Amino acid sequence: MELLAPAGNWESFIAAVNNGADAIYLGGQRYSARQSAANFDHKQLREAIEYAHLRDRKVYVTVNTLIDNDEFAEVLDYLWELSNAGADAVILQDMGLLNAARTVLPGLRIHASTQMTIHNQDGAGWLEKQGVKRIVLARELSLAEITAIYHAVTEVELEVFVHGAHCYCYSGQCLFSSMVGGRSGNRGRCAQPCRLPYDLYNSADRQKINLPDQGKYLLSPADLCLIDYLPQLQAAGVHSLKIEGRMKRPEYVAVVTRAYREVLDRLQEDPGYRPEPAIKERLLRIFNRNFSSGYLFPGNPEFMSTSRPNNRGVYVGRVVDQDRDMTAKIKLTGSVRLGDGLAVWVGKGHIPAVTVKEMKVNGKKVAGARPGEIIEIKLEGRVFEHDRVFKTHDEDLLQEAQESMRPDALAGIPVDAYVYIEAGQALRLVLADDKGNQAETATVTPAQIAEQHPLTEEILRRKIGRLGHTPFALRDLYLNGDKNLLVPLSELNEARRRAAELLRQKILGAQKAAPIDSSLYWAHKDKYLLAAVSKPARAQPLLTVVVSQIRQAEGALRNGADLVYWDMQELGARRHADPAQITKLLSAESAAVDRIIPVLPRIHKPGEALPYREMAQDSLRRVMIASWADLEWALQSGLDTRADYSLNIFNRYTRNFLARLGVAGMCLSPELNLEQLAEFGDLNNAELMVHGDLIIMESQYCLLGGVLGRGKKCTAPCAARSYYLKDGKGFEFPVATDADCRFYVFNSRTLCMMEELPRIVALKPGSLRIEARVMPDGQLEAVTSLYREALDQVLNGNQPDLSLYKQELSTVSNSAFTKGHYYRGVI
């Protein structure tokens, strides 16, 4: 299996290479999902690719953000430059960009980002047909589910995260950072709201729920660590093991990469090997929020880290006492030395932390202390007897990591030298590596009989071995020819320099694809960018409503909805929809058959029970897909197919691609602003949200079952009441669950674009949507009725006082209003 390490800067890149990574993933300074990292400019990218290729490593470049319309041409040029620079692959999220790259740059190897939320066989199979060579699977998959996907696809490599930070939400489905602070995770600017404190409240009485066994970081997962399960991952068909951490310091990259390298190498020698505790200890010492196996095995009780959202370090002792001048005595269970960082976990208040610059044992200053000793150090905060002490900065470990990152820490590429020397002939020098690459040079001056100091094997080894400014190191030297000969040493040195450079170029050339003809590229690019898919404009936009219950669908239709999208997950119902009920509702005899469209689940993992595909032959005529997994099936089944906003349709090229495939309509990303929407031009097959409560997180982990369930078995607290989360600023985020126990977080503010209806209608969208999945029945009907009336007024050319409509909406709303991203957009 490939070991794939992160690099957020050049130092991290060297740390990854020097510590055994087979491949490194890194980003440029734009279009990367870690925009807060230093990242690489174009010159550094080329240097990194060359450095890696000379050492038989690969470089994958992340271009894994959603692409705006006005960025699209520039990003294609960037991909072209990466291809010509020799990047081994690019990692993409945006489906429009993926299709463009496949069309315009057919030789470019593409990996699908985990941001594409690929979580089942059909999603993987769809990308396989789009020319994707590797899929970074969703982190939420179990070992059995990964195995099922592996057996379903034949030409796609599977990559999984094995170590590092874990997102609470499915990657690619999180809008929390975006909606709260305008920093979009889909655009590489996530502000990590899941690492902030929250309180859980009962919606009925609005009382905070006391959680004595939990911390306040209710959305903060523990760090992933799968170093104990590498053989199982290999058996499941995993090709690449990915370490998370482009935002981490280089020393972190060095330590984690080295640990996984050691285990992989030992497994090659002994398939039954299991990592020693010391290896896991090093991983804990460099950074951890506790370790977890994530979703690899169902029912993991250690998934969350609600006590602390940051590095907790390793336990090294307890406080004995503290005197008035704040000097604390700590009895150690682990070693501590000067330069280490310590944190004391107190029951309440600020956690005192200190970098150890001075400490005493038995009243004497010491540089280090061992387990069992009592140290005295001064703290900037009050602590108490028995408080636990953790080492959060390990100076010994960091220095060891820094040693491994020195430029000369990695041995040079071994080469053999073959010297051919005959009297009267130029000396020939051949340098050869283990891959069969060779470079030959010769001196200008023929070899002559040496009156003194002939070129012995010892002298040749010393002269030719001076490869310090090259990536090579001389291993063996073979001398062929006459003895007692001599050539000018300056020419021998020059022959060595030229041979090393020629070999360098040959190695790089052997790994680099043929450059793309520029004129051909520009022609294909222009043709792709100018292509458009247009349909006759709708006379007026439809009003659509998304609901979770069948009774709500009927209420929305009665109050003026043209179409109703019925979410088959039925949030809050704790059961899947009855297939017989679906068949009856959508049968030809039903009056609503052409006005109710089922919304398929965003997440449908291998083996889950919702049998919507089996219903298609008898019941389904129209569907809204919510993941890439259902696109091909829906179209091939002849269904009138629409696409939900969970597909992250952020530019007209993704929209055009879907339209060319036959998708009839699609809800555009709620992260787009009005100016960006105007750049789409034709919006007749597009849907825009105008009102409602937006899903900002969908998680495989149910917070309610985790913090309210008793013991290891969930007591279904969601069945009896509803809940919300409150953050430190007082914002309230409603939550819900579905029949598969997935957990949803909704925005704290209700989108309301009532006063902007004329401007939105002027964009000529195909439909306007009300998101009502968690609206009470009476509120849903009132909202639908008000929008129906206001929209009709606007479409008839009247100028109603829309502020009055908004005021009436506020009387039935459970939260304050927001205009979302329509005016502010995202960064």
How does this structure look, described?
With 827 residues, this protein is of the alpha/beta class. It contains 24 helices and 42 strands. The strands form seven sheets. Strands 29, 30, 31, 32, 33, 34, 35, 40, 41 and 42 form a ten-stranded mixed beta sheet that branches. Strands 1-2-3-4-5-6-7-11 form an eight-stranded parallel beta barrel, surrounded by six helices. Strand 13 (314-322) and strand 14 (327-332) form a beta hairpin. The longest helix has 23 residues, at 489-511. 47% of the residues are buried.
Q: How would you summarize this macromolecular structure in one to three sentences?
A:
By secondary structure, the protein is α/β, with parallel strands linked by helices. The chain contains 24 helices and 42 strands.
Structural class: alpha/beta
> Which descriptor suits the 3D outline?
globular
- What can be said about the biggest beta sheet? 10 strands, mixed
Q: What are the low-pLDDT stretches, counting only 5+ consecutive residues below 50? A: none
Percentage of residues in helical conformation = 25-40%
Q: How large, in whole angstroms, is the Cα Rg?
A: 31 Å
β-sheet strand percentage: 15-25%
How many distinct beta strands?
Answer: 42
Q: How widely separated are the two ends?
A: 36 Å
Layout of helices and strands, plus pairs?
Elements: E1 2-7, H1 10-18, E2 23-27, H2 42-54, E3 58-63, H3 72-85, E4 89-92, H4 95-104, E5 110-112, H5 121-129, E6 134-136, H6 143-152, E7 157-164, H7 176-181, E8 198-202, E9 207-208, E10 223-225, H8 230-235, E11 240-243, H9 250-269, H10 277-286, E12 291-292, E13 314-322, E14 327-332, E15 336-337, E16 341-345, E17 353-355, E18 360-361, E19 364-365, E20 368-369, E21 374-378, E22 388-393, H11 395-404, E23 413-421, E24 426-432, E25 438-446, E26 448-449, H12 457-464, E27 472-481, E28 485-486, H13 489-511, H14 518-530, E29 542-547, H15 550-558, E30 563-567, H16 579-585, E31 596-599, H17 612-615, E32 622-625, H18 631-636, E33 640-643, H19 652-661, E34 665-667, H20 674-678, E35 686-692, E36 695-699, H21 703-708, E37 723-727, E38 732-737, E39 743-746, E40 750-752, H22 757-762, E41 767-771, H23 777-795, H24 802-812, E42 817-818
Helix pairs in contact: 1-9, 3-4, 4-19, 5-6, 9-10, 9-11, 15-23, 23-24
